[in-house]
Amino acid sequence: MGPSVVAVSADSQHRFSKPNVGSIRVIAGLGIEGDSHAGATIQHLGPMRRDPTQPNLRQVHLIHSELHDELRELGYDVKPGGLGENITTRGIDLLGLPQGTRLRIGPEAILEVTGLRSPCHQINTFTPGLLKEVIQTDADGTVVRKTGIMSVVHSSGLIHPDDPIVVELPDGPHVPLEVV
After folding, report:
1. What is the pTM of this model?
2. Domain MOSC: where (predicted)?
């Protein structure tokens, strides 16, 4: 089986975790219908307070379920949607994708990868000690952020658990993801 969706999650309220739902509708240029982070301009509370006119490069948050597996092995009980992600995937190295990668999900939806998510201190409120597990430093001193990627909606459509995901890499030199 190839890359696929494990779960989809959305919430109309600004809360850390998002409940799983049966499907989400993504809308081009806006995000997930009914989700608190949908909008053409930034909807995340901290950045919104600084400059509400910024473009919303964080319309849809994706996390790989392999991170949940890793955290469970360390004794943390993390489930899909628990870290605030909208789409939990399996079988894709999300963190290794270059900027501009397109993810075709199901028959219609296309997301475009914009960058890495940088977890905030709220993650330790969700589960004490978790921040140190999801932000680490590798052997050469590079900070590694494991909490998934952010994207914008390129083409509208419905996304369900078990939908296949097709990865389309951008042309030209690939630009590594940075925090958005």
Report:
1. 0.96
2. 18-168
